[in-house]
Amino acid sequence: MGKLRIYGDKRSGNCLKVKWTAEHLGVDYEWIDVDVLSGTTRTEEFLALNPSGQVPAVILSDGRVLTQSNAIIVYLAGLNNSALLPSDLYTRAKVDEWLFWEQYSHEPCIAVRRFQKSFLGKADEELDPQLLTKGRRALGQMELALQGANYLVGDVLTVADIALVAYTRVAHEGGFELSEFPAIRQWVARVERDLLIDQVEAA
């Protein structure tokens, strides 16, 4: 039985979710850097690991492969019987709500606009204006949910918070003004403290 191996790019929020969850849970892991901009994820070797050509991908201690960031963090939390994954069925379903929403309504706008703007160097006029509109709408929904609440679900940190904080904390790199969302800013700082990760200063 080997240690967990995480293939990821540290510029990717999806990959950082897995790294942070593993560290929070005290999971022994090996990080394998994969530069997504270099074409590494399209090599025959990597596609044999993950046919979708995406990171993160993990090789579990028993040699099995698991992909998709939210599936991985749920697995790790469940494997360790962690409070990151609620035992109550309804509360767990509320966590799942946020996980599905993050990949459908949040990441495709906020992460995509950040990638195109900060990593591909595209000017605002080259970007789909709907990315900004839909991203702001997603942040607005989070702001409402976090008003008067410390976390997205219940009173403790869950994988829902880890999944959502990854790209929300760097949303300013995609042109989203987090100063307009005070509850989100407080939540981001709280989750960063919980995970013992450096705070990101918005521009």
UniProtKB/TrEMBL annotation:
<dbReference type="InterPro" id="IPR004045">
    <property type="entry name" value="Glutathione_S-Trfase_N"/>
</dbReference>
<protein>
    <submittedName>
        <fullName>Glutathione S-transferase family protein</fullName>
    </submittedName>
</protein>
<dbReference type="Pfam" id="PF13409">
    <property type="entry name" value="GST_N_2"/>
</dbReference>
<dbReference type="InterPro" id="IPR040079">
    <property type="entry name" value="Glutathione_S-Trfase"/>
</dbReference>
<dbReference type="InterPro" id="IPR004046">
    <property type="entry name" value="GST_C"/>
</dbReference>
<dbReference type="InterPro" id="IPR036249">
    <property type="entry name" value="Thioredoxin-like_sf"/>
</dbReference>
<dbReference type="InterPro" id="IPR036282">
    <property type="entry name" value="Glutathione-S-Trfase_C_sf"/>
</dbReference>
<dbReference type="Pfam" id="PF00043">
    <property type="entry name" value="GST_C"/>
</dbReference>
<dbReference type="InterPro" id="IPR010987">
    <property type="entry name" value="Glutathione-S-Trfase_C-like"/>
</dbReference>
<feature type="domain" description="GST C-terminal">
    <location>
        <begin position="88"/>
        <end position="203"/>
    </location>
</feature>
<feature type="domain" description="GST N-terminal">
    <location>
        <begin position="2"/>
        <end position="84"/>
    </location>
</feature>
